[in-house]
Amino acid sequence: MKDELMNQLLYIDSSVQGDQSVSRRLTARAVERWRGTHPGGTVAYRDLASHPIPHLDSATGMARLLPADALSPAQQTSLALTVELVDEIKRADTIVLGLPLYNFGPPSTVKAWVDHIVAPGLSFDAETGKGLLGHAEFIVLESRGGGYGPGTPREGWDHAQSWLPHAVSMTGLSPRFITAELTMADVNPAMAELKPLAAESLSQAFGAIDTLWAAIPVVT
Predict the structure, then answer these.
(1) pLDDT tens by residue, 82-101
(2) CA distance 177 to 138
(3) Positive/negative CA dihedral, 73, 76, 78, 84
(4) 3-state secondary structure the chain
(5) pLDDT on residue 215
(6) What digits encode the pLDDT tens for the residues 35-59?
(7) What angle (nearest 5°) sits at the alpha carbon of residue 61, between those of residues 124 and 133?
(8) Percent of the chain residues past pLDDT 90, beyond the cut
């Protein structure tokens, strides 16, 4: 950690469901908890759903791999965004990411964010491969519409949770997941009998969030 007491939080949402989003409820709870245990701390917010990161394409995809004097204007713009995103992480002591499961994987906007922040010379040392972002605590708050636990028919189908640790591993980030599942039970009649399990899962997720950070003692 950069300081004994963490003072800056990077808060990222990605759900497209607005006020109906469970992952946004989880991140809001986490940020409330963080503020309560980090008086005087600052929060930077990024909403990947309302302000998506551009996906890498044929015009911009090589921007992180070419020398500066070889970059096209489009590549320069893309690289500048990567620098901005990596700098947000470097300034943060803690990152909270809301991660809804879409079609058994992460939102494409989260994939675009990851593609930008995995950048030689910025998030990892190009010569040694050492990650440069490992100072930051990385809390991932995931919501899943169905059940994907051991013994369920779709065990192993959550490709967001299995993908993300590998995707950011070169940067030194190491995500810790807190998950609420069966979130579709309240709106899908076919899942009505699962409502108690959904409520229990959400309650457990809130409980885990509430224990994330110890209260900072007041010095008198």
Answers:
(1) 999 999 999 999 999 999 99
(2) 9
(3) negative
(4) CCCCCCCEEEEEECCCCHHHCHHHHHHHHHHHHHHHHCCCCEEEEEECCCCCCCCCCCCCCCCCCCCHHHCCHHHHHHHHHHHHHHHHHHHCCEEEEEEECECCECCHHHHHHHHHHCCECCCECCCCCCECCCCCEEEEEEEECCCCCCCCCCCCCCHHHHHHHHHCHHHCCCEEEEEEECCCCCCCHHHHHHHHHHHHHHHHHHHHHHCCCCCCCCCC
(5) 61
(6) 999 999 999 999 999 999 999 999 9
(7) 20
(8) 94
pLDDT of residue 216: 53
Distance from chain centroid for Cα 194: 27
pLDDT at 124: 98
Alpha-carbon distance of 219 to 16, in angstroms, equals 42
pLDDT at 220: 45
Q: CA-to-CA distance for 73 and 149, rounded, in angstroms?
A: 47
- The pair of structure tokens assigned to 1 is 């950690």
Sequence-separated (6 or more) residues with CB below 8 Å from residue 143: 15, 21, 22, 23, 26, 98, 99, 100, 101, 179, 180, 181, 183
Residue 134 has pLDDT above 50, yes or no: yes
| Sequence-distant (≥ 6) Cβ neighbours of residue 44 within 8 angstroms | 8, 9, 10, 11, 88, 91, 92
In whole angstroms, what is the distance from residue 102 CA to residue 3 CA? 36
Q: How many Å is the Cα radius of gyration of the chain?
A: 19
